Each structure stands twice: as C-alpha cells, then as structure tokens.
Amino acid sequence: MSKRIAVVGGGPGGLFFATLMKKRRPEWEITLFERNQADDAFGFGVVFSDATLRRIEAADPVLTDALAAHGKHWEVIDVVAKGETHSFGGNGMAAIHRRTLLRELQAKAAAAGVDMRFGEFVPTPDRLGDYDVIVAGDGANSAFRTAVGDDVLGHTVEQAAAKFIWFGTDRMFDGLTFLHRRNEHGNFAVHAYPISADVSTFIVETDEDTWRAAGLDEFDATQPPGPSDEKTRAYITALFAEELRGGRLLTNNSRWGSFRTRRTERWHAGNIVFLGDAVHTAHFSVGSGTKMAMEDAIALADGLAAHPDDLEAAFAEYERVAQPQVARVQNAARPSLRWWEHFGEYYRALEPWQFAFHFFSRSIPLQKIRLRDQRFAEAVEAEWTARNGAEVLDTPIELGSQRLPGRLLSWGAEDELVHASGEHLDATRARVVDLDVEERAAETADAELVILTGGDEDERIFESERLSLSGDLPVIIELVDGTADQAATLVLSGRADAVVSR
Asked: Which domain of life is it from (predicted)?
C-alpha cells in the first residue's frame, strides 16, 4: 500500500531519511519541505569519526563519496597551550563544509525521486493533514515539537554556562587543533579543523565572566538569522593573530550562544516522528550532531520499511535502535561539555603536558589512549616520572604525617587504607566527603587528607578534581572495583592523588 510521507526540514537528517525511504519504497510519495533556499547553509563544517563513516556508508555511500571528493581527513589532534604543542594520534576523523554536504545530499534525494520544496515554510502539523507520516527534522528549536508539546514528548533542555561562537577561516589547519590563549580578560579556546581545500572551521569558547569582561556581550543574538558579531570577529582576530598567520575569520550568522543539551523520552506522537536536533543534542566537542541525525535517518527508514502498515510498531522499532545510540553519545559528551565549562581553571593550574592529557582523558582512560597512540602515552608517563622519580602508581604519597608507597589502595580493617605492599595507614585523620550526604563534612584543622565517596562516578571525579586543584590536602577518590588503569588516568591527569577501591 502506497504512503505519503512529509519530511519537514532539509538538513542532513531529513535529506538522508527521504533518500533512503524513497530508495526502499519507490512507490511511496516522499515530499521534503525546507523553509530556506537550497543553497542556504548556516555554520561551517561538520565532523565524522571513521567509525561513524563505516556505519553510514553501509546504508548509502553518499557521505564517504562526498568526503573523498570535497572533505578533509586526519588522524592527529593537537593541543596548543602556553607555547607548547602536544599531539595525540590514532583519532581517524573527517570533515566537510556543511554547504557541500547539503548539496551532495540534495543531489542524491533528487536522483531517488524525492519531491523537494525549498523556500516553503510549514509552521505546524495541521498543514500536513493529508500525509500518512510526518517526519519532523526541523532542528533544535523545532516548531513541530512545540506544537506536539514538550510535556507530551518528555523533552528537557539543559543550558551550559560557557559561551561559544562559530567562525570559519581561510587559514588552513592540518587537522583538529585546539588553541588556548589567556589575556587580561580571561581564557579563550579555539576548536579549529579543515573542512575543504580553502576553509577551516574556527569555533571559539570562553566562560561568561571573560565574555563580559572583554565587552563581547553587546551583540543582540536574538535578532533574526543573518547579521554576525563583527566586534567579536575583530577581537578574536587580534587575540589569535599568531595562530591565524594572516588568515581572515569568516562569518556566517556568527554570534555568541550557550550550548543546550536536549533530551527527549518519546520521539513520536500519533503519526508525527522526530529525528536529529529536534529531540536530542550533544556538545559539539564530540562531533556528533550530524552523525546522530543521519543515524536516526537510517533507523527510521529501517523501522518504516519493516512495518509499513503499523506506524506504532515502526516508530517503536526506530526508538529501540536509535535511542541507545544517542544515549551513548550524550553520556560521552557529558564529561566533555563539563571540561569545556572549566577549561580556564585547568589551563591556569596545570602544566601543558598534563593539561593536554587532562583533556584527552576526559572521556577515555590511559590504556585506550595508549592503544591509539603509544608515543603520546609514554611521553606523558615520562613527564610524570621525571618530576616524581617513579612510575605513576609506584609514586609514594605523603598523607600528612603518614606515607604509602603507591597510589592504588584498598580498604582494610575499619578506617584503614591498605597498599598492595601490605603497608597501611589510619584514615581517621581524613576528612570524608560523601556526595550522597546533603550536609558535607566540615573542614577540620587536623585533617591530613580528603577521601571522596558517594554520588555517581562522574560526580565523584569532578568533585575530586575540584578539590585536588583548589585545596592543599591530598585527595583520595573511592571507586567501585577501581582498576590500575583508572587510577593511573586519574593521578596522571591531576584529578586525584590516589584511588581507593572497594
């Protein structure tokens, strides 16, 4: 039985779904509505990991073909801070200009027979009453999601405190490069990466206090899309003049914003089903927005092809496949977003080698880093050994008047911390901070160390890091079945002084 499907939103997710669905069910009528013109594109580049490319290519080679013809690929990520560059290899990634990707996806959709209507704004679902299925891929500020109701879908938004602005530049970077600068106003950082033969993306982040101190809060970001913040462009051009090497910053609706993480429990209501940013976002530092939308498209097309006469079953299958994929990305993005919320503190507190490792280990441990780039892992370990005279877990730790010969501990008898050597110490002189207890233990003058327990692991690590960077006492973090890999990662990165396993 033939169906009529309306796709609202001509971004990568909507275009990819329309193409896949038309190829699988050529007899179905697929109409795509996009409020902007075909050659309009806001922003600059989109990034994909090699693993993502393999999954999308299995459905359709449009992305790999476009990247091969027009994109850029790299393996190494650089962190540049305080005059030093630290490189981490083994991170296969590729990027392409958003406008180019849209052009390639539009060509594929046209070839498949999708009816694309550009410059046609559909504000509400009631305008599409004669369609069997409405696929809403109308972005983070989805009008269709609002029409259905955030409460109906279980939609929530969490706004980050940090500020970011998206530029391009004609200064060509070799791969993903993170640039850090501190001036009289505060800390600024850049995510830069090539997206074509002559353009790189150049995203700037800072904290709100620095943003205001620099006078960059004057532009009205609520005005309709179009104008860019020229004052900020001039300021950032001057601040990163050395790194830009005479290159220009390019604008395209470039204005400051704060990232919003969106989560949604239910991705459909009646015959309306959502994909992409309309129902989920993850911080851009993990390069995931377009990836998730295109993977949604694959899962939705699969669901509808498998259950053409039962929309509820089709949508349930779509959510069963796609929601866990999105949850994994969002869980990985949490520590990354948190890192960018506090990067200025880390920059001020850590030496460049440790700052770089702190960044790269925000989501993966030392042994995974070693598998990707043994040279980088060994260089970090060598820096530690040069400063401490021993490998990280064999470095003695002074805990006030007490001492243990290593950094991975376990609980012994009541209130005893035990090292594998058999040496132990009395932990009664510790200030125990339990994140499950609302009223925290008060600081005491005779405390010789801090032991951190409770909460979930991410909370505990973040609090341990905060105490380690701001306090004078050694911090020991408790982990459930803590491993040597976890302990080495936390200690090398400065997030804790030792780990106690329970």
From this structure: Bacteria
CATH architecture of residue range(s) 163-250: 2-Layer Sandwich (3.30)
User: In b/e form, how buried is each residue of 42-64, taking b as 16+ CB within 10 angstroms?
Assistant: ebbbbbbbeebbebbeebbebbb
Is the CATH code 3.40.30.10 the one for domain 4-42+51-70+95-156+260-337?
Answer: no
> Does 395 score more than 70 pLDDT?
yes
pLDDT band at 411 (very low <50, low <70, confident <90, very high): very high
- Give me the amino acid identity at 332: A
Residue 447 tokens read as: 């405390």
Res 287: pLDDT: 79
What is the distance of C-alpha 178 from the center of its chain? 14
* DSSP character string of 258-314: --EEEEES--EETTEEE-GGGT----GGG--HHHHHHHHHHHHHHHHHH-TT-HHHH
Q: Distance of alpha carbon 401 from its chain centroid, rounded?
A: 42
Residue 440 has pLDDT above 70, yes or no: no
- Which residues neighbour 427 within 8 Å (Cβ) at sequence distance 6 or greater? 415, 416, 417, 449, 451
CA distance 441 to 26: 66
Residue 288: pLDDT band (50, 70, 90) is confident
Instruction: Please spell the DSSP secondary structure of 168-215, one letter per residue.
Output: EESSPPSS-EEEEEE-SS-EEEEEEEE-SSS-EEEEEEE-HHHHHHTT
pLDDT in tens, 332-363: 999 999 999 999 999 999 999 999 999 999 99
pTM, two decimal places: 0.94
